Amino acid sequence: MPEAYVSTRYDGREADTPAGADSGPAGTTVPHPLDNAARASLTGPHAYFAERYGRVLRYPVEVSPWLALPDEPEPADWAEIAALAGPGGDVPLLGYRGAVPQGWEITFDVAGVQMADDGVAGTPDPEAVPLRPADVPEMLDLVARTRPGPFMERTIEMGTYLGIRRDGALIAMAGERLHPPGWTEISAVCTDPAFRGEGLATRLILAVAHGIRERGERPFLHTGAGNTGAIRLYESLGFRHRLDTRFFGVRVPLGA
User: Fold this and answer.
1) How many Å separate Cα 13 from the centre of its chain?
2) Angle CA(243)–CA(184)–CA(147) in degrees, nearest 5?
3) Torsional sign, CA 78, 68, 100, 33
């Protein structure tokens, strides 16, 4: 490791990798698309979104805030990020477990888990309706009240979003976010607090998973490592722990 770098390597434990995606020719191994899911999305099915700065990729900021680093970033890659964000700029990095340059401030660092399909039985739901761009103001309002994670004005363009309404009001939703080859992330799972306990999140997760499976793909998702209730729910639906990860942000030094 270069002396100019300080280690913040995350001691994550990877469970057995879901079959069929990490075997290369003659028994060699290749990176699994979920190991660096944002980058696999932006070099794969979501390549049409990709904004490229050297080897650094990102979604348009109104679509998703996450940047995607190479698996082993070099000093030039961090220089690209500094130029992109500017001195004092905040940079969110999903799942990065390597080192950051000396002098870069860590602004948040939350342990997370990645859970992958291990027999999720997707099921359509008659009450779940597709959400459209006209629904975005309501979606943003629901997200602001329930805080399921980043959801921006154009996040809906990343995939299919389904919602459940009562008396015309949007009370629960879930949808698709990252899209590595062969996989789709289920995200923005949220329910209005007044309607929790009715199983709406479960129904929407299974409905979104059904659409993913209909395309011949497999669902996965992320959640906080401390969110034990959600983890138990996801396990009951057929997801299993695949990888310890982190939700991580850094700030560019003012002198960069």
Assistant:
1) 18
2) 75
3) negative
CATH number of 116-243: 3.40.630.30
How far, CA to CA in Å, does 164 sit from each of 134, 159, 174?
Answer: 15, 17, 9
Residue 81 sits at φ, ψ, to 5 deg, of: -65, -40
CA separation for the pair 86, 253 (Å, rounded): 9
pLDDT digits (tens, 9 = 90+) for 139-162: 999 999 999 989 999 999 999 999
Q: Please check whether residue 8 is in contact with residue 102, taking contact to mean a CB–CB distance below 8 angstroms.
A: no
Span 156-201, pLDDT tens digits: 999 999 999 999 999 999 999 999 999 999 999 999 999 999 999 9
Q: Are 139 and 190 in contact (CB under 8 A)?
A: no
Q: Which residues of 178-216 are buried (b: 16+ CB within 10 A; e: fewer)?
A: bbbebbbbbbbbbbbeeeeeeebbbbbbbbbbbbbbeee
Q: Report how far apart, in Å, the C-alpha atoms of 146 and of each of 52, 63, 107, 140, 149 are.
A: 32, 19, 22, 10, 9
- Output the pTM of the full model: 0.87
Interstrand relation of 218-224 and 183-191 (parallel, antiparallel or unpaired): parallel
